[in-house]
Please model this.
Amino acid sequence: MCLLRESFVFPSTMMNQVFRSAFCMKVAIRLLTCGLIAGNIFLGCRPMPPMGENSQERSNSKQRATEFREVRYTDKTPEEWLSLLGHRNSQVRDQAIDALLQYGPQQIKPLIGVAADRSNPRARLSAIRALGAFGPQAGEAVPVLIQALEDESWDGRDAAAEALGAIKQETPEVSAALVRALQDPDERIRMAAARAIGRCKLSHPTAVEALTKVLGDADMNVQLAAIEALSEIGPAARAALPELQKLAETGPSLIQASAHQAIGHIDHPQ
Model:
């Protein structure tokens, strides 16, 4: 009987311990919550706004950010921003590019001067990128950008090709320079050159022939860039159709899909 009584007492004791543990847990959670609230108040943290105020708060924050951006750009003269194009901090260089774009096309001539100066590679690279960001407005920068395609650094050549593609001048000089760049030993430059030819829609037979050769490049990204460029050129790229047809039948799945799309754009333009 004694053993039987103890067997009944044991579960009751155990349940009491469980209830006490659960109660202590609830108290601990409440204390922790109160502590966090008190800590927020003590540290000066803002309380969470009501749900209806979230969208208004976001709108106000965006407006404040826009106002700050405008003040930040006009806080320096264009000459001061130009001097920061060669800053060692890449974020500062990007800010300088953005600021000069805000000041408008009148900054193109000064940027051409910086892009032509090889004494400061960082500033030169930033200027080339800024000229590309101006797009067709920066047509007078084309000679300097063609020279930059011969830079020793790959990033200078890459930026020059991208800028030429953004400016979109359909001239024999641009075509010849980008065709040469298609033979660059760096696959990144070949890809950038192919993309630039497509963006410029350079339909000269020499450009189409060069892109057709690049369809057999060892790098798939270069192949895709060449296919896309031929697609953008359109019916003037008919000479590339036999090679595109081969890729559409025997290439990897991604190449096949791109080649089929290019054939459609060349053969049946909308």
